[in-house]
Amino acid sequence: MRVALGCVGLMLLGACAHERAATPTVAAARETAPMTGRGDRADDAAIWVHPSDAARSLILATNKAEGLYVYDLHGAERQRLSVGLSNNVDVRGDLAVASNDGVNALSWFRIDPFAGAVRHVGDTPLERREPYGVCLGRADGRMQVAVTFKDGSIDVWSVRNDAQRAPDLADKRSVKLASQIEGCVIDDEAGRLFVGEETAGLWAMNLADLTPTLVDAVGSASGLAADVAGVALYAQAWGTGYIVISAQAKDRFVLYERAPPHRALGRFRVGASLDGTVDAVTHTDGLDVVSAALPGFPRGLLVVQDDGNPRSGVDQNFKLVNWAEVLQAVQSPRSRRRP
User: Hey, which of 28, 66, 75, 138 would disulfide with 188, CB 3.0 to 4.6 Å?
Assistant: First the structure.
């Protein structure tokens, strides 16, 4: 198992300061209401884009102790669905799914665009214990769901959709990596699954055969570091776009090209808002990004979990980031000169 050595482990007194200075910072734009209390509560987010009125889009977010929270684009809490110990969440169309440790199942939700409301439609029990990460996608005209587990296993099913209850799962395929996995995302157009092995790196695999290919390793020059946590896709036309990953222990994010060989483009942090009303982001677990134009976010929106609000393990929430500013920071001449 490969583990990246930190600055202290390398005994280089100036290394951490140099590394921080070399990584550009993007200011947070907004934040959600806190998941009030102490402890590790907030985890992952999924952005639902309204099909006809972008201003009514929603952010679905998991609370590990309670279930699913729903926020609007200003960060105001709209709903709580107390379904149990939810870890990761994803959405496709009006269908959303969360991994639920409390009932060892996938919890399914429907989003009503007219009412702007989310409802729980049931759970699908799983054979393996402790579902961890989850992601939805489409391949060969069928909905797919991938679930990751702490032992390194990944199960992928075809989803038999039903609007009134939890979908049925069929045609399971499986693969196993060497160690714990959490975040995943499916590229529908490419039929490709990306997963983050927490202490090893980012993997890509075709949904057809699940043969894993290492894209980037922890400790590489890209800045990828353990824990490799959230993984999200910024999808544009003609197969272009980006993969964005949370390098949790280093309080930073790494950006890759969507198309193979998924070249690393740079890294960034999320700092406090320019007016000081939103605190900086630390120790991000889950995240999501969309390329759709939303009010205040004309080139897309990135939502990241924040470990502390502002102190670690207290009132955790999610920060909203303007994607245009991410690209500007990563593509700036100063960041390109980064050693």
Answer: 138
For 39-55, write each residue's pLDDT tens digit: 899 999 999 999 999 99
Is the pLDDT reported for residue 175 higher than 90? yes
Instruction: Write the pLDDT tens digit of every residue in 82-96.
Output: 999 999 999 999 999
Query: Which amino acid would we find at residue 104?
Result: N
Query: Which residues make beta-bridge pairs with 246?
Result: 253
Alpha helices in the chain (DSSP H): 7-10, 15-22, 323-331, 333-336
Phi/psi region, residue 51 (left: phi>0; alpha: psi -120 to 50; beta: rest), is alpha
For the chain, give me the number of helices (H) and strands (E)?
4, 25
- For residue 339, what pLDDT is reported? 32
Q: Give the pLDDT confidence score for residue 333 in this predicted structure.
A: 55
- Spatial distance between the Cα atoms of 258 and 172, rounded to a whole number of angstroms: 26
Residue 223 Ramachandran class (φ > 0 left, ψ -120 to 50 alpha, else beta): left
**Burial of 150 (C-beta count, 10 Å sphere; 0-12/13-18/19+):** middle
Q: Would you say residue 29 has pLDDT above 70?
A: yes
Among candidates 100, 104, 106, 33, which has minimal Cα distance to 65?
100
Q: Is the pLDDT of residue 11 over 50?
A: no
Spell out the alpha helix ranges (H) of 45-143.
none
The torsion angles phi and psi of 166, rounded to 5 degrees, stand at -60, 135
Would you call the peptide bond into 310 cis, given omega within 30 degrees of 0 as the criterion?
A: yes
Cα–Cα distance measured from residue 63 to residue 84, given in angstroms and rounded to the nearest whole number = 9
d(CA 54, CA 36) in angstroms, rounded, equals: 28
